[in-house]
Amino acid sequence: MHEADTGAAPLIALEGVTRTYISGEETVTVLRGLDLSIMAGEMVAIVGASGSGKSTLMNILGCLDRPSSGRYRVAGRDVAQLSADELAGLRRAHFGFVFQRYNLLPELSALGNVEMPAIYAGLAPSVRRTRAAALLGRLGMASRLAHRPGQLSGGQQQRVSIARALMNDAEVILADEPTGALDRQSGEEVLKILDELNAEGRTVVIVTHDMNVAARARRIIEIDDGRIVDDRLTGPARVPPPVSSETPAMVPPRWRQRLDPFREAFRMALMSMNAHRLRTGLTMLGIVIGVASVVCVVALGEGSRQRVLANISALGTNTIEIFAGKDFGDTRSGRITTLVAADADQLARQPYVAAATPTVSTQSTVRLGAKEANALVNGVSESYFAAKGTKLARGRFFDATSVASRALDVVIDENTRKALFDAAGVEPIGAVVLIGTVPARVVGVIQPQQGGFGSSQNLSLYLPYTTVQTRILGTTALRSITLKIKDDVDSAYAAQAVTQFLTQRHGAKDFFILNTDDIRRTITSTTQTMTLLIAAIAVISLVVGGIGVMNIMLVSVSERVGEIGVRMAVGARPSDILQQFLTEAVMVCLLGGATGVGLALAFGAAFALAGSTFTLVYSSGSILLALACSSFIGVAFGYLPARSAARLDPVTALTNSRQ
Ligand code: ADP
Ligand code: MG
């Protein structure tokens, strides 16, 4: 009807549009075949009783909703053909919504709310801030830029929402009962603003049930029960002036279009985390504990590995121990008497051997005056100390002469010195101790070895092996032979050669060999296995933490449905919403991860302060991995909530927000 008047193509054209809702078994038809066209520059009032379908129509006009059947064309484009992103583009650039309940985001200032549509349009921050401030200033809100919606009156909030609708220079303003929640005077002001916007050349569609309000429009459409029952002109339509010149220069570079929503998502994430500090903290807890335990466990594993390896090198590098018996578990090894001093002599002559020192050992009491203790008595040769890398604290080692003459010389360790001499205040060197019933003169005290195997509480005595064999044990058998291999010889090769040599000599393999390389390898792989095992447990706790994050994020999404609806209404693409929630999940996890790492470092520092024998060795690799892991958990467990947010239907989201 009206298009016939002017002959131009309508801006908005509905043909036979219906909208039905399916609720449960029932199908509710809200719009029943609407035909309507609106020309650019018109000011149209839609009136009708409550429940007649006005809001449903507005949502379709604004591309928040789609018709169930019929055709809707915006500037000639059929919306049925458009993707979700293209619809978002229309909402962003062509339509500006003004709602009865304003629908401002409570965490944002007036300025922040007005700016929002421009963020999704990719406008530079400085430009959009200036423009938002100018729009608010024009609507008489210059002194309220930093106020939150809660600090503004209804009329002021509605002006903020109008400024927001104008932010991207919308051609069409869709106002759904904009004065419904306002007092008369504020309502009047809002209507005046809408009138001015129409005078500028913008198309204004306003829903109202107030006939006074409707009278301001030059065309009134009345809806009853989903049908247009009246469509009349009350005044001449304005001739639209040329397109407003204040259109912002808006062709932002692509990188900005990509980067800006990300920065905004980051800012929003911080804001919402800050708004729900307790909840955020509790959400993080699982991640904090998980990351802290992973980092600690890995550090502890690395610490103990390094420690054990250091102990092994303290045992002397490139040494081979030959024991009597078939294996460690051989219970007869004490009674096997095939390993003798002559073996050591022969081995010492082998080209790959630097030194061979026979050892015997036994447990015995050691006494000085009234003091008595149990000690491990080692019978060794003079080369033993050099082979083991043992260092003297005082005195001297016994020498080859002592070994040959079965001298009663004893070298004691630090534990023995403490146990026997400390309390008595006797100078150890030169003192005579009783080993069992055998008296021996102390010639040297050795420095405590770094850790070493077995308990550090053990007392150890070292005597010439000949002395121990004849005076204490009464046997010529050896417990073991310690070989020091020449530096340029491979220890595996040496072990093989020793095995061959001794097997030939004894006619059977009645001994076994341990070399430090084997021990080192075994210990490294054992600690690695342990670390892996415990880290796996820690990873499980991380996963549990991630599920916690997912849980809370899902709750957060349903709590923030309104916000999501508003963002979609001003033109956020589903991908923008996805990005926002994903960013938030990642930030929560990353912050949790960083806190966890901090906690682990603090734990290590506390351990060091307490003088514990455990050392935690942190590697930047494990810390980076923990952080990477927590971001990954954020993405993995944040994805589902973020997707459910992005998939929300804009109308449903907005409707729920109005509760
Ligand atoms: P108005 O804005 O004119 O008051 P609405 O367009 O909001 O009316 O609603 C029209 C009718 O559609 C109402 O009867 C309402 O109950 C129904 N309706 C609106 N949204 C839904 C929905 N999501 N599901 C089912 N019925 C709905
Ligand atoms: Mg309504």
From TrEMBL:
GO annotation, cellular component aspect: membrane protein complex; plasma membrane
Topology relative to the membrane: Multi-pass membrane protein
SUPFAM superfamilies (alphabetical): P-loop containing nucleoside triphosphate hydrolases
Name listed for the protein in its UniProt record: Pyoverdine export ATP-binding/permease protein PvdT
Biological classification of the source: Bacteria, Pseudomonadati, Pseudomonadota, Alphaproteobacteria, Hyphomicrobiales
Gene Ontology terms: biological process: response to antibiotic
MF (Gene Ontology): ATP binding; ATP hydrolysis activity; transmembrane transporter activity
Gene3D superfamilies linked: P-loop containing nucleotide triphosphate hydrolases
Family designation: Belongs to the ABC transporter superfamily. Macrolide exporter (TC 3.A.1.122) family.
Subcellular localization, as worded in the UniProt entry: Cell inner membrane
PROSITE patterns named among the record's database cross-references: ABC_TRANSPORTER_1, ABC_TRANSPORTER_2
Transmembrane segments: 281-301, 530-554, 585-610, 616-640
Domain ABC transporter: 12-250
Keywords on record: Antibiotic resistance, ATP-binding, Cell inner membrane, Cell membrane, Membrane, Nucleotide-binding, Translocase, Transmembrane, Transmembrane helix, Transport
Pfam families in the record: ABC_tran (PF00005), FtsX (PF02687), MacB_PCD (PF12704)
Species assigned in the record: Ancylobacter rudongensis
